[in-house]
Amino acid sequence: MDVSEIIKKANAGIKTPLIHGDIVPNLKRNADPCVTKGCLWPKTGSYVYMPITIGPEYTTAESNIIINSLLTFHQYTCIRFVWRTTQQDYLSFFSGTGCWSYVGRQRGVQQVSLMKNGCLYTNIVQHEVLHALGFHHEHARSDRDSYVSINTANIQPGFESNFVKVATNNLGTPYDFNSVMQYGKNSFSKNGLPTIIAKANPKLVFGTAVQISVNDIARINKLYRCCK
How would you class 217 by CB atoms within 10 Å of its CB: exposed for 0-12, middle for 13-18, buried for 19 or more? Predict the structure, then answer.
């Protein structure tokens, strides 16, 4: 099952208002994309320290799935997740209804919902954390029309907004079908037919990333100036 199908299944029927399938809108912000420094987590020296808490409702094994998913960021980027002590701004991982996150730093406690039964997979954890870091879905990026076609006739009624483009800062990186932020070709389909088609290869299967890609890593490093 691809990333979007896991999220769609977990989020079916939840009452939390979402856009693009798993993003909680910040009603205090305008519609501008999260590309400004005010939306980024602060950098101290060479690293971006992101305080976190993991809810007590998770078992040790479940918590370890989250922790191990986060450690990949330590290995390849300057993001460092640290246990929250007294920090005011932090990510709070909890088993809510569904899989969802805000985009970018929100200030104060910032919830990331990872439902115990449905969201505890490496790709889903990393997907939601990338939202928290400021990233949108791949198929929503500003230049997507050069790479994919959206078949609106195949989209489930009520889910059309999940395919709206965002004025993203693509950071000089190419469109990436292997990104953990890329939804599958049949995402939110009403009839089993593709909603997203790769223009260069209409038969291409995508949305099956099991963890962050090389380009996901490159974007984090560029956005957060990890090499400087």
Answer: middle
Which pLDDT tens digit goes with each residue over 31-82? 345 655 578 999 999 999 999 999 999 999 999 999 999 999 999 999 999 9
Return d(Cα 47, Cα 97) in angstroms, integer.
32
CA angle 179, 180, 182 (to 5 degrees): 65
Instruction: Write the CATH number for 103.
Output: 3.40.390.10
* 192: its two tokens: 């089993």
Structure tokens at 122: 């490496």
Please give the tally of structural domains in the chain: 1
Known binding-site residues for Zn(2+) equal: 127, 131, 137
What pTM does this model have?
A: 0.91
Catalytic residues: 128
